[in-house]
Structures are given as structure tokens and as C-alpha cells.
Amino acid sequence: MIRTGKVDWVAHSILLLGVALFVLPVWLVFAGSTQDSADIARGDMSIVPNLSQLGIYSSVLTEAAPGAQPVWRMMMVSFGMALVIAFGKIFISIMSAYAVTFFRFPFKMLCFWTIFITLMLPVEVRIVPTFKVMAGFNLINTFTGLTVPLMASATATLLFRQTFLAIPDELVEAARTDGAGPLRFLKDILVPVSAANLAAMFVILFVYGWNQYMWPLLVATDPRLDTIVIGIVKMIGHEALTEWNRVMATAVLAMLPPVVVVVLMQRWFVKGLTEGDK
After folding, report:
1. Of 134, 136, 194, 198, which one has the fewest beta carbons inside 10 Å?
2. Closest-CA residue to 226 (of 60, 76, 100, 23)
3. Are 86 and 79 in contact (CB under 8 A)?
4. Which residue has better confidence, 271 or 128?
């Protein structure tokens, strides 16, 4: 049977307005990337793309702007940084959540609350001492220094802890009776149970790592370690000299990897956010 009913025009209107607010700026950037830089600087940019100028994307990918790295190289640095941060955060968060949930050791709750308190500290408060630590280990201008300080995540630790607390005691006892050790219990039971949460956190943390700006700006002054976000900023020089079509084409290319990750993992992402406490 076909269900019939009144259309909620208010809800649909709000949704369409939201879509327009998100899509219109992206569309303007795409349209601007196919037009002449001088027209953009004069404010004569059309909202209709010039499809005959799509070759600028291949040009931007392979040809480096003055004083900058090729876009493909900056995207590879960002991609590697985002992957390392995402996997590193997930691994550290799972292990720390596993420890504070299932193990008994002195000052366990103190350790947990210490992790929790770090949520109260903004990044700006921690960035100077973090930079000093990296400088002390001679990790400035290294990929290690670019990624390792961003791996710890109190938010992910709390999320996995809440998931682990929902594990029935009977399941824990059954695994212990079956002779499962700590590592086997983690690998065969906890990780599969947390699969949806893992996917959701991977999407969030990948986008987080991809969009990093402040930390790479401080710790990586070597142009070979420029991320795509840093590269876009460097491409914007004096207004009269900025090639706005290349800047906009680079911005469009920079959006593609996070969008692909979100689209490919959308189903798991939503499931992880809605069923994480079940």
C-alpha cells in the first residue's frame, strides 16, 4: 500500500535552506576556479562555470606555484598526516579506555579524570608546551613531530570507555572461562563490538587531521612538509598578485579526500553515532 499524507513543507523548506547554505559556497568556489583570475579580483565572477577551463585542475596538481610545493605533494602530506593521526588516536584511545574499564591498578580513577580534564584545556593553552617538548626531542620539521602530538584524544577515550562499560558482565565472565587472555578478549570481542564506533571515530579524526592548520604552521617550516591547508594560505599573497582561480581549484581538490571518506563510510558513521551506547 502507498502511504499518503500531508507534506511537511516547513521541514522541507528548512532542509532545502540548509542544503543551499552548504552547497552555494562550494559551487561558487568551483565556478571561480574555471574563470579568469583578473575577473575574480574585479568582482566580475560568474556563478556559471566555464567548463572549457577545467584543465586548470591538472595544471594545479602538477605545476607548483612560486614558493610552494605541487598540490599533489601537499595532498599526500595531508593524507598521510590524517591517516596517522586517525589510526594513532584510535589505537591509543582503545588501549587507554580498555585499561581504565577492565583493569584494576592504583590511581585508576585519577588517571581517568586526568584524561577527562584535558578536555577543559583549549588547544591554544597546550600548543606552546607541546612545541617545547617537540623541540627538546629534535622533532621540529619532521613528519613525526607533525603527527605524534595530535594522537592523544580524550574524547575518543571517553567514547570507547562508554562502549566498553555497556559490555555485559556475563560476556566478560564467559570469555574468562573460555580461557581468553586480555589481548584475545580485546581483539575477538571488544574490537568487533566497537566496529561502528571505530568507523565513526575514523571519519571524525581523519577530517580533523586533514584540516589541521595551527600545529603544522608552527612545527613544520620546511616547505616539503606543507599540508594542503598551509599550501592554500601560502598561495594567497598580495591581492593583485594572487591567482584566485588556482587558489579556488586547489580548495576544491582539498575538499575531495574528506568528502570521499565520509561518503564511503557514511553508513558506518551514522551507525556509530546512533548505536554507540547499545
Report:
1. 136
2. 76
3. no
4. 128
